[in-house]
Design brief:
This protein has about 130 residues and is of the alpha+beta class. The chain has one domain: Roll (Nuclear Transport Factor 2, Chain: A). About 30% of the residues lie in helices and about 45% in strands. It contains 3 helices and 7 strands. Strands 1, 2, 3, 4, 5, 6 and 7 form a 7-stranded mixed β-sheet that branches. Helix 1 runs antiparallel to helix 2. The longest helix is centred in the first third of the chain and has 19 residues.
């Protein structure tokens, strides 16, 4: 059952995530994740739980920064679960030397409704260099 308010709220979480990602705001990012969240990154081991998510972003932000404008391509809401998919070009900035590289990210967010609103339950991403 899809509800326009629920859809907008779920997309809002993904948009807030992307904004926090750009400014390396780990505290906001962690608030958007559920306690038992999982991240399934490309070419890295999957991880689960708040501490692992925190460590993932700490190491990511130590190595790179990102400039991104989220482009949601589909959203589905089913009672307590929402699925949001995005695809967008991203500029990746290497912290060590400032090198800017064009990339193209494809992302899948599975959100779970909690008493505090939608939270990211599972997040999976990959890159497609051919689209960069």
């Amino acid at each position: 059952m899809t509800n326009n308010n629920s859809t907008a709220d779920a997309v809002g979480v993904v948009e807030a995530y992307m904004q926090a990602l750009q400014i390396k705001d780990t505290d906001t990012i962690l608030r958007l994740y559920a306690d038992e969240a999982e991240i399934i990154p490309e070419n890295l081991p999957s991880l689960r739980g708040r501490d692992a998510v925190d460590s993932f972003y700490a190491s990511t932000f130590a190595a790179i920064g990102m400039e991104v404008n989220v482009e949601v391509v589909s959203t589905e809401v089913y009672d307590e679960i929402a699925i949001v998919r995005s695809e967008q070009p991203v500029t990746v900035i290497t912290v060590a030397d400032g090198t800017r590289t064009q990339a193209y990210f494809r992302e899948l967010f599975v959100l779970r409704r909690t008493p505090d609103g939608w939270r990211i339950h599972k997040y999976m991403f990959s890159q497609n260099p051919a689209q960069a």
